[in-house]
Design brief:
With 328 residues, the protein is α/β, with parallel strands linked by helices. It is 46% helix and 12% strand. The structure holds phosphoenolpyruvate and magnesium ion. This is phosphoenolpyruvate--protein phosphotransferase.
Length: 328
C-alpha cells in the first residue's frame, strides 16, 4: 500500500481547466496522521474525536483529550485539521456514558447521539471545547458539529465554546489565532435552513453516509439495503445541488466528507455539482487526485446540470459513458 501511495503522492489535484481541488482525508487516531504525508493530502477534513472515547475504558480526561488534539495538530503541521466534536451515542455505545433510563433505543441512528448528547450532558462538551481551544493555542482551529438538525443547535454548541474561550482568556492562556466553526450536513432538515445558518459558519461538510440513510430512510448498517440505494440517484444529487446553491453567495466553504467522495464516479458527480473539497479515506486519495487531473470541471458541471434537470434512466451508466468518452 505504501508503494501505491508514494506513486501518487505528488500528483496535484488540478482539473484540466485549472481549478485546484482540495483532497483531504478522514482520520480519528494519532496513528492515522502518518497518512497525511504518505498520500500528500491537503489536510484532515474530518477528525472523528469519538474514536478516543470508543477505545477508552473510561471517559477520557481533559488532559488526555488536549494531548491528542495537540499531537494531531503538530503532526499536521501547516495543513488544516477539522475536528468534529464527539459523535457518540446511538450505535456507538460507551459503557461509561449511560442513557438516563438505561434503556436501549429502537432507532439508535435517529436517537440520542452526537450533539444531542453533547448539549444535554454539557459537561462533556465543555471539557472537549476547553481541550480543543487549548490544543489550538497560537494556531487556526477548525471545529465542526455533527448531526445538527436545526440552526439553534449550532448556536448552543458554539455558546459552549464561547464560554470556554472567555474563561481561557481570563486565565491569560494562549488562544487560537482564529477559530473556524463548521457544521456537518447529515440531517436533511438542516438543508431547508441553510440560508439561516450560512452567516454564522465558516464551512459546511456534507456527511453523505448519514445523509443518505436519512434521505432514503435506509439504515446504513443494514446489508439488506446496501445495494438498494445508489449515491448517484437523482434524489441525492438533486438534494446536494440544492445544498450547494443554498450557500452560494455566502462565504461558506462547502465540502463532502462521507465515503461517497472516495469513489470515482461519485467523486465525478460531486465535481459536477460544484464541490471542490473532498475528505475521503486515505486509500482513495491517489486515484481521486488522478481523476481530478483528467476532468474539465466546466464540462462536467454543465453536463450534470442537464442530467439533473431531466434525469437519464441510469445516472451511473450515463456518468460512466461520459467519463469513458473523454478518456477519464
Ligand atoms: C457521515 O455521516 O457521512 C460522516 C462522515 O460521519 P460518520 O461516518 O462518522 O457518521
Ligand atoms: Mg455521520
Amino acid at each position: 500500500r505504501q508503494a501505491v501511495y508514494a506513486a501518487l503522492r505528488d500528483v496535484e489535484p488540478v482539473s484540466r481547466d485549472g481549478v485546484r481541488v482540495k483532497v483531504m482525508i478522514n482520520a480519528g487516531l494519532r496513528e492515522d496522521m502518518a497518512n497525511l504525508s504518505l498520500t500528500g493530502a491537503d489536510g484532515i477534513g474530518l477528525f472523528r474525536t469519538e474514536f478516543q472515547f470508543l477505545v477508552s475504558a473510561t471517559l477520557p480526561q481533559r488532559e488526555r483529550q488536549t494531548r491528542l488534539y495537540r499531537d494531531v495538530l503538530e503532526a499536521a503541521g501547516d495543513k488544516p485539521v477539522m475536528f468534529r466534536t464527539v459523535d457518540i451515542g446511538g450505535d456507538k455505545i460507551l459503557p461509561y456514558l449511560r442513557h438516563d433510563d438505561g434503556e436501549g433505543e429502537e432507532n439508535p441512528a435517529m436517537g440520542w447521539r452526537a450533539l444531542r448528547v453533547a448539549l444535554e450532558r454539557d459537561g462533556l462538551l465543555k471539557v472537549q471545547a476547553r481541550a480543543l481551544l487549548e490544543a489550538g493555542g497560537g494556531r487556526t482551529l477548525n471545529v465542526m458539529f455533527p448531526m445538527v438538525a436545526e440552526p439553534w443547535e449550532f448556536d448552543a454548541a458554539k455558546a459552549v465554546f464561547d464560554g470556554q474561550l472567555a474563561y481561557l482568556r481570563s486565565q491569560k492562556k494562549l488562544l487560537p489565532e482564529a477559530i473556524r466553526y463548521g457544521v456537518m450536513l447529515e440531517v436533511p432538515s438542516l438543508a431547508e435552513q441553510l440560508d439561516l445558518l450560512a452567516p454564522k459558519i465558516s464551512f459546511l461538510s456534507i456527511g453523505t453516509n448519514d445523509l443518505t440513510q436519512f434521505l432514503f430512510a435506509a439504515d446504513r448498517a443494514n446489508p439488506k439495503l446496501a445495494e438498494r440505494y445508489d449515491w448517484l440517484s437523482p434524489a441525492i444529487l438533486r438534494f446536494l445541488r440544492r445544498a450547494v446553491r443554498g450557500v452560494e453567495g455566502s462565504n461558506v466553504d462547502i465540502g463532502v466528507c462521507g465515503e461517497m467522495g472516495g469513489r470515482r464516479l461519485e467523486a465525478l458527480a460531486l465535481l459536477g455539482l460544484g464541490i471542490t473539497r473532498l475528505s475521503i479515506t486515505p486509500a482513495a486519495v491517489g486515484p481521486i487526485k488522478e481523476l481530478i487531473g483528467r476532468v474539465d470541471l466546466r464540462a462536467i458541471r454543465e453536463a450534470m446540470d442537464g442530467w439533473l434537470d431531466s434525469p437519464p434512466e441510469n445516472m451511473r451508466a450515463t456518468l460512466a459513458n461520459w467519463a469513458v468518452e473523454r478518456g477519464i
